[in-house]
Amino acid sequence: MSDAMRDDDTVIPAIRLIRPSGQEQRATFFELFFDLVYVFAITQLSHHLLAEHLSWQGAAETAFMLVAVYWAWNYTTWMANWFDPETAPVRLVLVFVMLASLLMSVAIPRGFGDLALLFGCSYAALQIGRNAFVVAVTPPGVFHQNFRQILAWSVLSAPLWVAGGLVDDARWPLWLVALGLDLAAPLVRYWLPGVGDTPMSQWSIDGHHFAERFQLFIIIALGESIVLTGATAAGTDLGAEVGLALGLSFLGSVALWWLYFTGASPVILHRMGHSTMTEVGALGRDIYTYLHLPIVGGIVLTAVGDELVVAHPDHEMEVVGAVAVLGGPALYLLGLMACGIRVGHRVGWPAVVALVAMVAAVPVMANASGVVTSAFVLLVLGALAVAEHRRARAAHSRAHVPSGSLSDPREHDHGNR
Q: Which terminus of the chain, N or C, has fewer Cβ atoms within 10 Å?
């Protein structure tokens, strides 16, 4: 066995900074500490959208910055799936990424204003710094070449991030091109002229650890929603209507948790556990790098809607309020359905009905109060959770599949055939 390889089936170098092989990998305490910065980031995103009074401009800016924040966390999660946070050098580079992420999060409320340069520079610095570290510490080989190409794409977009922070009039086009390059890089597998792309076999990941990290990020987003509504309620006179609105919002968060953790997540993990090394890399890229974005975005938008309802439970939602309260869960369900399709499952009709009901109800609920709108959302999500739970139990008893699925149980093993 070569000293540069962990085993015959992987390209990950056997160096001290790499996680030990042959052991079950779990999220470390330092990774949980790292996530605290992103708790703050999610809160900043929700407040930024509210500060803009749910304008289309505010929604566009928030969506853009959400993708950038998620991309920074996501790339670091990929890196920490291979590198051991219990080693001092890896821990120090994660501290650097935390600091840059904190500065980026501080800039969010004025990220398209006078703090645009701080936002753009912080994002570019953490991406380049983390990738440069991997290139510097890994020996020559295919894994090293992989990160050389990842670093090249980070360097390619960095000038656009900095320029966008400097130039007010051209900020949107510059940053859209920069973010577009970052989003496209994994899809084209970091292709470079004269070098080619990076094979999926180089993207070997620990599926359980990877899934756990993204599960924790979902909990961060859901937790921020609960904190936001609780803090809003604490600032009111806590009358009966506010208490009802708070209860409805909380139960809505429970329903979202239920649909993900007893539905989509076990199915994804089951599929990854029965996939080849190349398939796991592709699944990790598609499901977690891309298809979890609408899930996280839906939670953030739901948090904004919940705060509106708790703050003004008896007020009419109007169109923008209804879009937040109903559009957040709809976007969330769309992400769950997309994940199910990616792992080879047919989406069940209850999920489709729930999604259509949410979207169709927007013009109707625009004239309804916040409490009525929130109650409607809870009714739809609760009915979907019950329907999926019953279908999952029936499927489990017939075919011994993982409990909880947003998919047609007859198609559970479709992806493995």
A: C
DSSP state of 109: G
Angle at 149 between CA 202 and CA 162, to 5 degrees: 135
What percent helix, strand, coil does the chain show, rounded to 5?
75, 0, 25
Q: Which residues is 407 bridged to in the sheet?
A: 347
404: left (phi over 0), alpha (psi -120 to 50) or beta: left
Closest Cα partner for 86 from 22, 146, 6, 26?
26
**For the range 67-70, what are the long-range contacts, defined as Cβ-Cβ under 8 Å and sequence gap of 24 or more?**
67/179, 67/183, 67/293, 68/104, 68/119, 68/123, 68/179, 69/38, 69/41, 69/42, 69/45, 69/101, 69/104, 69/105, 69/108, 70/292, 70/293, 70/296
238: Cα separation from own chain's centroid: 33
User: Hunting for tokens 């506010």 — which residue is that?
Assistant: 242
Q: Which residues contact 33 (CB under 8 A, 6 or more apart)?
A: none
DSSP element (H, E) containing 60? helix 56-82
DSSP secondary structure letters along 193-238:
TTTB---GGGG---HHHHHHHHHHHHHHHHHHHHHHHHHHHHTS--
Q: What is the pLDDT along the chain (417 residues), one digit of tens a residue?
A: 333 333 434 678 888 999 887 667 788 899 999 999 999 999 999 877 665 657 888 889 999 999 999 999 999 999 998 999 999 999 999 999 999 999 999 999 999 999 999 999 999 999 999 999 999 999 998 889 999 999 999 999 999 999 999 999 999 999 999 999 999 999 999 999 999 998 766 677 777 888 899 999 999 999 988 998 999 899 888 889 999 999 999 999 999 999 999 888 888 888 877 777 667 888 888 999 999 999 999 999 999 999 999 999 999 888 988 999 999 999 999 999 999 899 887 788 999 999 999 999 999 999 999 999 999 999 999 999 998 888 777 766 765 545 444 444 444 444 443
State pTM to two decimals.
0.89
Instruction: For the chain, give the longest Cα–Cα distance.
Output: 70
Rounded CA Rg of the chain? 22
